[in-house]
Amino acid sequence: MKTPPFNLFQPKTIEEAISISANFVENDEKFDWIAGGTDLLPNYKWHLNTKPNVISLALIDELHHLDSTHIGAMVRLHDLANSKETHPIIKKAAASIASVLIRQSGTVGGNIALDTRCFWFNQAEEWRRSIEWCHKCDCDTSADCRVIPNQNELCVATYQADLAPTLLVLNAKIHLCGPEGSRELFLSEFFELDGIKRNILKPGEIITHLTLDKEINSWSGDYQKLSLRKSWDFPEAGVAVAWRHAAQSSDEGIELRIATTALESIPRLHNDITNEALLNKYSINEIASKLRKDVKPVNNTAFPPNYRKKMVEVLCKKALHGLKGVLS
Amino acid sequence: MSKEIKGYRQQPGKLPFSKPGSGGSEPFSKLRDLNMIPESEGGKKPQPKGKNKHDHLLTGSSVGRRTPLVDSNWKVTGQAKYGDDIRLPNELIGRILRSPHHYAKIRSIDTSEALAIPGVLAIETGQQHTDLFGVLPVTKDEHAMAVDKVRHVGDLVACVAAENEATALEALRKIKVDYEILKPTHDMKKSLEDVDEPIHDRGKYHIGKSNVQKRVFQEFGNFDDMKNPHASSKAKWKFAGVNHGFTEPHAVVADWEPSGRLTLYTPQQVPHYVHRSLADVLKVPMHQINVHRTFVGGGFGGKSDPFPHEMCAAILARKTGRPVRITFDRDEVFYTNRGRHPSEIEMNLHVDDEGRICGIETDALIDGGAFASFGHVTTYYNGVLHTAPYEIGSFHYTGARVWTNKPASGAMRGHGAVNSRCAVELGIDDLCNQLQVDPITFRLANLLPPHSSTITGFRITSIGMRECLERVKEACDWEQKFRKLPLGHGIGVGCGFFISGSGLPIHWDPNKFPHATVHLKIDMDGGVTIHTGAADIGQGSDTVVAQSVSEVLGLPIEMIRVKSRDSDTSPVDLGSYSSRVTFMNANAAISAAIEIRKELIKATAEICNVSEDSLVIGDRRIYQKKDPAVGVSYLEALHKAQEERGALVSSGAYRTPPMGGVHKGAAAGLAPAYSFSAYAAEVKVDPETGFTEVIKVWAAHDCGRALNPLSVEGQIIGSCHMGLGQVLSEEMKYARTGGLLNPNLLDYKIPTVHEMPEVVPIIVESNDPEGPFGAKEAGEGPLLPILPAVCNAVYDAIGIRTNELPITPDKLYKQIEKKVRKLKLDSPLDLPNPELIYSELQKSLEKRAENHKERDIERKLNQEREPYYNGTIFGKISTIPPEEQDERWTLSVTPSEEYLANPRLAGSAWKHQEVRHMKGGET
Ligand SMILES: Cc1cc2nc3c(=O)[nH]c(=O)nc-3n(C[C@H](O)[C@H](O)[C@H](O)COP(=O)(O)OP(=O)(O)OC[C@H]3O[C@@H](n4cnc5c(N)ncnc54)[C@H](O)[C@@H]3O)c2cc1C
Ligand code: SF4
C-alpha cells in the first residue's frame, strides 16, 4: 500500500491558505485540506478519491485557540478532552474518539468535516476493484451504490464522528472562511444529506472555529456512544442530550435537545421529538422509543442497522438518566 | 580431629589443617535427611509428582527460574530484524498481482505493457512454475501463482520485481489478465454437493464431483448405552473463521548468492517445509538452499505453511540476479489467512443416571477455503481432540472439510481443537444444569486417571486436570459465586486438553528419523553454542533450549548461545507447531548435553582420581557428591576433556516412543504427552444491550513443569487475549458478494487493552515422566478453556446459551429479545436468573470424585501400575482394552449403510464415492 504522491502546501495564515485554495478553485485544480490527517491519510493510502494537492492547516496559529466558548478548528482532540474549559458533554465525546494516539493528531475541524464511511468504500483499491467499485469512488465507471442499488445518485455512507451531536445539542455556531469571505451559521445548518458532498462547505472554504453561547454552563447533559470496543472503534450510534431548567424550579421550564450521530449520512438534532415530548410530558422511555423510530440507519457499518436502531433507544434512556425524576 | 586450637600465636604451617579438600572442621559434609530426599536422588521419599527421566540431571541452574527470553533485548531495543528489516544492497521490490474474482479460469495474461515500464525488471506468472507444493505431502495443491484457475479473491496471479514499490504497483495495474468467470461457492454446505467444476481436481482420490477435501468417520465404544441416556444436551454451533492477527505481516527476502545458492530470509515457524517446497518449485536440490529464519513478529500457526509469495520472491531473485523483497499489506495477510476454520458443529452429549458421559456425538463441517493447507489434520482434530480429559462410553465423530472460494483456512493456535472443545464444555455445563449438579464436581467425577488410554487409543501420561479444577475453584471463590450472582453478572468454567507435539512427523517414518535434533559445541572459552532448527517465533524456544543445556551443564544461561536461524548450520527440526518445541527440542538438547556432561565428568574423574559415579555438576563446578570440596572448575574439566580433540561437540535427538492404535487415522492427535487446563471467567452482561465484559479470569494450566514460569504465564495471558477475541469480537466477515468484508485491523476486531480482563495465571505441574525435566506444553492448550468459560459465564449471568461465536452484542441481544418475547416479560432486566438446587446426584458425584482423587495419586506414584483403559468407569476391566472384553464395543472408521441412509451434515460427505472406487470411473 502506498500513498500516491501529492504536493503539500503549508500556509501560516488563514489569508494565505485561502489564497492558495482560491487559486486552485480558479484553475479548476483538485485539492484537499488536511488537518491532523488521521482520516484523510488512511483514505489516501487506500486510493480513495486522492487529489494531487493537499493544503495543511497545521501551521496556522489562530486556528489552535481554545476556551470555553471558542473552539479552533485545529484544536487537537486530546487537548479538547483534557481542557478544564471544555463543556463536560463535549469532553466526554472527545475522550471517546478513536484511541489515545489518534487523539494526539486528530482535530476538531477534521472531526466535524470527517468523511462519511461505508464498508463497501473504506477498503483497499484491489478490494474495491473486486466489487467493481461503487458510486462514491467509481473510478469513472459510473458504478452504482452498493447499499441502495439502482439509483446511482445518492451515497448513503454513514457520518461516524462523535463531536457533532454534542456541539449540536449545545447549539454551537460554526465559522467558515473562503475565497468569498467569512460566514457563520448554526452547526445544525452545516451538514448536507449526501454521503459524498457531506456539508455545505464551498470550494476553497475552511472551518475556522466553533463558538458556544456564554451561558453554555447552564446546560447539563450526556453523550452515549455505541461501539464494539472501548477504543479505536468509530461510533455505530451516538446520542447526545442537553437540558436546562430555564425557570429553575418546575419542569415546565425545562429545555431539552437531543442529537444523534453515526446513524445516517449526517448528524442531526431531533427537535420535533423534544418539542413534542415537552408539550405532552413524555416519559424518558417514550422519548427514547420515539427517537428510535426517527432514525434510519442502513447496512454499511459493523453492526446491523436494526440493532443500531434498537440501541438508540437504550442509549437515549441512558443519556437522559440525569433527568429521572424531572421527566417521568 | 577435634583437638582444639587456642590463641593466635600458633605458627603458620603448624595449624592442624584438616584433610585437603574437605573444608572446615568436619571432614565430610553431612548427608541430608534421606526421608526428605526423593527416591530418584537416592533418598527414601517417593516424589509427590511421580518420576521424571531427567530428575538426576537437575543442577538448580535454570529450570523453574523466571527467565527473561534470551532474545528479548533485541526486541525491546528495536534492534530485532524481522522479515521486512532485511535490507540487502541492490534490492528490488516484489509485488503480487492478485485475483479480483472469486473463481475464474485464466485465459491469458499479457505482461508486455507492464514490462515496458522503466524500472520493471521481471514479471513472472504461474505458467512457468507449475510444480505443486503444500504443507502436507498428501495434499500438495498450491502453486507459486495460479496456473489455470484463480480460486479466491486475492489468489496470486503474477509477480513483479521493480526498482521500487511505486513502479511495481504501476506494473501490476498494466498487466492484462483475461478471465473466464466461473460460478463460485461460498457456502460450505453447498460444497458437500456435486458440482460441475470442483475447486480442485484430486484425480482418482477425488470424492465424487464434490468440493469435499477430507472426510472422517469414527465410531468407538458402546452405542447401546447411549441410546437411552438419562439426559442429553444437543446443540448446533456456528463458529466464524478467525485470523491469527499477528503483528508482523508476512515479508520475505530472496537472494541468489554468487555461490549460486539461494538464501531465503523469512519469518517462518517451519523453515524446514519451506526448504522442501522451494526445492520442489525451483527444481534445485535442497543443499543449494539456505533458509534463514528472521525474527518472527508473531505466528500462531499463520506462518507455518510454505507460502506462494516465498516461491515468488525466489523466482524473481533468480530471474533478476538481485535480491528481492516482498512485504505484505495487511489485506494480503488476510488473503493468505490459514486462520481457524469457520465451522458448523453439531454436538450431542449424553449422560447416564450415574452422571457418567455415556456418549459424545460430534459432526463437524469445516470450511477450508480454497486450499488444503493443514486441513487433513484439522478434520481429525475436530473430533479426536475432545476424547479427553473425560472418560466416555462412546464416541461418534463425522467430520468433513470442504473447499470454498475463500482464503484458505489452516492451523491456528489450538489447531482444530478449539471449536469443538468449546461445544463440549458448553454441553457439559448444560447437562449439569439439567442434572442440577455442580459442573466442577461433575468434571472431577469423570476424569481419566494418569497413565491411561483414551477411547481412541491415545496414551495419556501425566494429567494435572484435577489439580487445575481444584485450584481454579478455590482461587475464584466458586462456591460463593456460581449461580449466586445477580442478573447480568456471572461466572463459568471450562476445560481444555491439547497435544504436546504431534507423534507423527509429517514427512517421514518416526522410526527412521528423529523429530528433533540438537547440536552442541564448546570451545576453550567455555561458552556453549547450541545449533537447533527450532523456530523461535516469540514463544521463547531459544530460551527453553538454552535453559535445558544450562541446567544439565550447571552453567549460567549467559554462557549459552543459540544459533537457530540458518538451515545451513541447524540440524533439521520440524518447526514450531503442534506445541512440540519444548517437549521434543528440549529433550533433544538434554540428550546432547548429557553427552558433554559425560565427557566433563570423565575428565574430572581423571584429574581428581575419583570414580565417575561419585561426581555431580553444580554451578560451574564438577565435584564429588559426598564431598563437594573434591572437584574442579568447569573450565578445568573442559580443558582436560579437550586435550586430545579440541572443541567438544555432541548431538542429541528426540523420537517419540511407539504408541497408539492401528485404525485409519490413529496417528492424528497422538502425542507423547498432553496438557490440561481449567479456567473460570467472571463476566458482566448488559441485558439491555447484549454487551459482554469479561472482568476476571482464573487460568490454571498443567504444563507438566514450568521450565520458565515467566513465559508460561505469558503464554497463558496471551492465550486468554487471543481466545477472548474469538469469543467476543473477532470474525472474518463475508459480504453478500462473497468477498471478505474486513481485511484490516480496524474492522477485524481484536480486543484492545480495555477489553482485556485481569488474568490470574495458575501454573499446575504434573511432572510428565518423559517431558524435558517434566515439561509438556503451554503454547496452545491454554487458549482452549477461555472460550467455554466465557460462554458458560454468560449463561450464568443471563440464562442464555450461545451457539454462535463470536458473541457480539447484536447477536446476543437478538437472543435476549427472543427470550423476553417468549417469556412475555416487560424488559430484559426481568430475565430469570439460572438457579442451582443440588439433586441427589451431587452427593454421589462428590463421593466418586473423592475416590478418583485417591486412585489418581496412587497411579501417579506407583511405578508398577497396571494399564488403565477408557471404559473402566462403566464397569469394564481396567487392564484389558474394552473391545477385547465386550463384543458390543465398536471400533469403526467407515460408515455403515444404515448410517448413510440418514447421515448428519458433515457425515453426508460419505455419500459420495471416491473416484478410484467408482465403477468405470476414470483414474
Ligand atoms: C483507527 C481510527 C479510529 C477512529 N475512530 C474515531 C471515532 O471513534 N470517532 C470519530 O469521530 N472519529 C474517529 N476517527 C476519525 C478521525 O481520526 C477523527 O475524526 C479526527 O478528528 C479527524 O481529524 P483530523 O484532523 O485527523 O482530520 P483530517 O484527516 O486531517 O481531515 C478529515 C477531513 O476533514 C477535512 N478538514 C479537516 N480540517 C478541516 C477544516 N478546518 N476545514 C475544512 N475541512 C477540513 C479534510 O479535508 C478531510 O476531508 C478514527 C480514525 C481512525 C484512523
Ligand atoms: S453508500 Fe453506496 S455509494 Fe456510498 S460509499 Fe457506500 S456503496 Fe458507495
Description:
The complex is a heterodimer of chains A (328) and B (923). Chain A contains eleven helices and eleven strands. Chain A is of the alpha+beta class. In chain A, the strands form three sheets. In chain A, strands 4-7-5-6 form a four-stranded antiparallel β-sheet. In chain A, helix 10 (284-294) runs antiparallel to helix 11. The mean pLDDT of chain A is 95. With 923 residues, chain B is of the alpha+beta class. The termini of chain B are far apart. In chain B, helix 13 runs parallel beside helix 14. Chain B has 21 helices and 30 strands. In chain B, helix 5 (271-282) links the parallel strand 10 and strand 11. Chain A binds chain B through residues 1-2, 99, 119-120, 123-124, 126-127, 129-131, 226, 228-233, 302-304, 307, 310-311, 314, and chain B through 98, 100-101, 153-154, 165-166, 169, 329, 331, 688-689, 729, 735, 737, 739, 741-744, 746-747, 749, 751-755, 808-810, 813-814. Bound molecules: flavin-adenine dinucleotide (FAD) and iron/sulfur cluster. The site of flavin-adenine dinucleotide has 34 residues of chain A, from strand 2, helix 2, helix 5, helix 6 and strand 7.
Strand order of the largest sheet of chain B: 3-5-1-12-9-10-11
Q: Provide the number of structural domains of chain B.
A: 3
Task: Quickly give the structural class of chain B.
Answer: alpha+beta
- Helical stretch count of chain B? 21
Class of the largest domain in chain B in CATH?
Alpha Beta
**Gap between N and C termini of chain B, in Å?**
92 Å
Give me the count of strands of chain B: 30
Tell me the Rg of chain B in angstroms. 30 Å
Number of helices of chain A: 11
The hetero molecules present are: flavin-adenine dinucleotide, iron/sulfur cluster
